[in-house]
Design goal:
The structure is a homodimer of 333-residue chains.
Chain A (H helix, E strand, L loop, with lengths): L9 H8 L3 H8 L9 H14 L5 H8 L4 E5 L14 H13 L3 E4 L7 H10 L5 E5 L5 H9 L4 E4 L4 H4 L3 E4 L1 H15 L4 E6 L4 H13 L4 E5 L6 H9 L4 E5 L5 H12 L9 E5 L7 E2 L3 H16 L7 E4 L3 E2 L11
Parallel strand pairs in A: 1-2, 1-3, 3-4, 4-5, 5-11, 6-7, 6-8, 8-9, 9-10
Antiparallel strand pairs in A: 10-12
Helix pairs in contact in A: 1-2, 1-3, 2-3, 5-13, 9-10, 11-12
Chain A binds a DNA duplex (30 and 30 nucleotides) through helix 2 and helix 4.
DNA sequence: TCAAGGAGCTAATACGTATTAGTCCTGCTC
DNA sequence: GAGCAGGACTAATACGTATTAGCTCCTTGA
């Protein structure tokens, strides 16, 4: 119904108001640098109102090469089926800040598919003024191309790839991890284990660096399929271990596994063993990853890059330490 | 760095390959209806490859008035701060189907703000090929304008407004509710209460219609601020009520309130009182709302509208009944 | 030798807006 | 009445691609 009726354009307004399309553009665009009689201005406005004129965003974008559209490239589903989505707060922060800055978001689909589809999606990225990338993965080819072309993009999470040319907003895991370890040392712990992912991601390596910086004698255990069992925990106790630090993973799986193992071994935290998580679920001893704030800051940085404001293109946010109930002084021997 | 370098266009390829821009467009667009020598085709492709050409999505969109971009207008945050988001499955379904059909999504921000921002966002909607609307609210002015202009849009949830001209994918609450009531009647229940929202939304009214169609004698209780308390429940029992049906709300609040009241009154389900929810959390007696499927179908319908395939523009999906543990035969008197 | 037909390509234009370099007035000054 | 200033507006063009009508050659056949 009414299918033939197409939305009015500036040319339509111009014809009716008896002016040129350029005049309409000037008036409606609020371009004050071109002088225009008040009467004309009024007339154009009225006609526009009558016709229900709405600027065509695509044409606007093409003409002024700015669309107030930010891309969001997730390398996974943005609305995962899984209810508990650790990264959700990041997206929430992104949306909030985008709304505040008057930017809409484009969700690229197919980013979790096979390589070819992924690369195609990366190309479509250019539809936006700039793009947020959100994930551990850096497909160097296409991303490098974007960076080379000066296309504004921001990664969420520290990204040392491409010779450090990738702008990002990350979390300062090194400092935060070191703080957690220092606190354990201050409490008197000497024999400590650090359980980390078998993963080369910067987020994993930064934590390890922080741990070893503060407490070089810490034993590092790499998770790789082998679960932490009650036996593992008993072994630690036998070795005189009084504190365990776990890398905070996406899902908090490792943390839960260790807790379970401790319980199964008939031990309790923090009496028998102090337990801290480097970036875990809220309320657990260790530190918190400021996800929401990362989302917000990433949007701000991206908009700065788009508008060519000079900002530090690589930012690390502080992770607030959390004093939970799982950490205490070591049991006196 | 490399800020001056702008991405290559078809014109650049044309110059280098010694052909016209039109030729480049024909070759790269895979337009088989224009004859082209294989050698030329090759040459153009190679140059495009060398330059790392990527079509400018905005220009493409302007030229062929199709962008493979679907709008998503939520009237609220798409990534709400609140962890438990009942509507999440809908968005999840939308994303899944969009990916399958090769469509990207635009998230319009400011849709939950004050009226003016909301209307501005509705206008921006036109940037996409079509738009999904997701919420009980229908701002008649701007939406009516879109519909009149033949802009493809689909609401999620039945929308009788604008004289029934709004395309939608909803859930068949009438039939599903009637089924639940019929089942209660079959079990022998005669005195029944229906607790519903004090809300004129179609989703509320459809349920009531279904309830009364199957069991006209059902007493209807409208929630409005007044909570259901233990006293309320005792009153029901005193009146000989053996079953209560609750409207499934966004958060399942009403359901939980009733359950709590029943417990506080020292009663149990289904022994003292059968309890069913019309579209509640999974596993609870009553029926389930096929959220995910609604999301998927809405996307499919929208794409059909965009591509001008003829499809029923208003669809109601079946809600699968759920036999939970909260419903049983009435206590024999 | 000319017409017909087809292969291979391109000039021109459309899409809808923003911007810039003007043009054409009117009124004023000396 | 020539010259100038400035006010009000617009023609032309840009943005980057898609489409279409039509042009130029070349081949074929009579």
């Amino acid at each position: 119904m009414a299918a033939g009726r197409r939305p009015p354009r500036q040319a339509d307004i111009a014809r009716i108001a008896g002016v040129s399309q350029a005049t309409v553009s000037v008036v409606l665009g609020g371009n004050r640098s071109v002088r225009m009689a008040e009467s004309t201005r009024q007339r154009v406005m009225e006609v526009a109102q009558d016709l229900g004129y709405v600027p065509h965003p695509v044409a606007t974008r093409l003409a002024r090469s700015r669309s107030n559209l930010l891309g969001l490239y997730t390398f996974r589903s943005a609305f995962p089926t899984d209810e508990a989505d650790t990264y959700h707060p990041i997206l929430s922060g992104v949306e909030e800040e985008a709304a505040k800055l008057g930017q809409d978001l484009i969700l690229f689909t197919g980013t979790s598919g096979p390589g070819a589809r992924q690369e195609a999606a990366i190309r479509r990225t250019r539809l936006a003024d700039g793009c947020l990338f959100f994930g551990r993965h850096v497909p160097e080819g296409p991303v490098s191309r974007l960076v080379d072309d000066g296309f504004p993009l921001v990664y969420i999470g520290r990204r040392p790839e491409l010779g450090g040319r990738i702008p990002y907003v990350g979390a300062d895991y090194v400092t935060a991890s070191a703080l957690v370890l220092r606190r354990l040392l201050d409490l008197g712990h000497r024999e400590i284990r650090y359980v980390r992912e078998a993963d080369e991601a910067p987020s994993s390596e930064d934590r390890q660096r922080g741990v070893l910086r503060a407490a070089p004698r810490t034993g590092v255990v790499r998770l790789q399929g082998t679960e932490i069992t009650a036996t593992t925990v008993r072994g630690w106790i036998a070795d005189g271990v009084t504190a365990v630090v776990v890398e905070g993973t996406d899902t908090g799986t490792a943390y839960r596994a260790v807790r379970r193992a401790v319980e199964t071994a008939g031990l309790s935290t923090p009496d028998d063993l102090s337990l801290a998580v480097l970036g875990g679920p809220p309320g657990v001893s260790g530190f918190e990853v400021p996800m929401r704030e990362m989302g917000r800051r990433a949007v701000r940085l991206l908009v700065d890059l788009v508008t060519e404001k000079t900002t530090a293109p690589q930012q690390l946010l502080r992770c607030p330490p959390v004093d939970g109930a799982q950490v205490g002084p070591p049991r006196s021997r």
